[in-house]
């Protein structure tokens, strides 16, 4: 199992990176990306510290740890610059916090994120067909989430992504140990979003591909 969207005490998560990595390994995850909430004030605080420990933590606990960031509530006009800056700092997985129904994310965030150098648009809410087509064209994955609240639009995201041919990944957006769901719950939530078994398997392959790409970057 892979979760490419997790949080630590570097933002609003409960655990420090070493414990999150340990908990994820014990829960059966073979890779996670640590993607704390970031803006221009803290990119340089978070990313170099994750880069410094990722490989060692991974070796110690037998899990792949990818240093990343979740661009969060960045004004849409600044998202492209933010993505460039976090890549330069060493972020291997760049998530952008999409237009979830449960937070006042600025309209235009989904579109601006899909035009920027990101890997995953998280919880994109009521994403439009045009935005999903842009995701497909740019090879950016749309997220199906196990997280309460953000998951309210999973069914819409799945349907819209499939219609546009956009790829999807399933993530936990884990903020604490209880958010690292079991393999069975992970699968059930994907099926609950309307995916078939085969479409869920494709999501898993998409996550594998992102890990491979991140490790070779
Ligand atoms: Zn959070
Ligand atoms: Zn998040």
Write up this protein.
This protein has 217 residues and is of the alpha/beta class. It has eight helices and eight strands; from the N terminus they run E-H-E-E-H-E-H-E-H-E-H-E-H-E-H-H. The chain has helices at residues 17-26, 43-61, 79-89, 109-114, 129-138, 154-164, 183-192, 197-216; strands at residues 2-6, 31-34, 37-38, 64-71, 93-97, 120-122, 141-145, 168-171. Strands 1, 2, 3, 4, 5, 6, 7 and 8 form an eight-stranded parallel β-sheet that branches. Helix 1 packs parallel to helix 2 and helix 5 (129-138) packs across helix 6. The chain is globular, with a radius of gyration of 16 Å. The two termini are 21 Å apart. The model has no long low-confidence stretch (mean pLDDT 98). Bound molecules: zinc ion (2 copies). One zinc ion binds next to loops.
Could you list some keywords that capture this structure?
217 residues; binds zinc ion; eight-stranded parallel sheet; 8 helices; 17% strand; 8 strands; alpha/beta
Count of distinct strands = 8
Cofactors and ligands: zinc ion
Give the structural class: alpha/beta
Please report the distance between the alpha carbons of the first and last residues.
Answer: 21 Å
Share of helical residues = 40-55%
Oligomer: single chain
Unreliable stretches: none
């Amino acid at each position: 199992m892979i979760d490419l969207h997790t949080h630590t005490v570097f933002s609003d998560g409960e655990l420090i990176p070493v414990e999150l990595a340990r908990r994820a390994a014990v829960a059966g995850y073979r890779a996670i990306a640590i993607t704390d909430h970031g803006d221009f004030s803290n990119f340089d605080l978070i990313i170099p510290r994750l880069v410094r420990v990722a490989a060692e933590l991974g070796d110690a606990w037998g899990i792949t740890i990818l240093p990343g960031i979740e661009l969060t509530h960045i004004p849409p006009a600044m998202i492209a610059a933010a993505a460039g800056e976090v890549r330069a700092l060493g972020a291997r997985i760049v998530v952008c916090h999409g237009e979830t129904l449960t937070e006042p994310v600025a309209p235009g965030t989904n579109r601006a994120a899909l035009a920027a150098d990101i890997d995953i648009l998280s919880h994109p809410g009521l994403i439009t067909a045009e935005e999903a087509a842009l995701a497909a064209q740019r090879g950016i994955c749309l997220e199906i989430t196990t997280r309460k609240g953000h998951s309210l639009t999973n069914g819409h995201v799945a349907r819209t992504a499939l219609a546009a041919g956009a790829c999807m990944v399933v993530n936990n957006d884990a903020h604490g140990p209880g958010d690292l769901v079991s393999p069975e719950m992970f699968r059930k939530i994907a099926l609950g979003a309307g995916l078939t078994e085969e479409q869920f398997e494709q999501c898993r392959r998409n996550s594998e591909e992102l890990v491979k790409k991140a490790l070779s970057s």
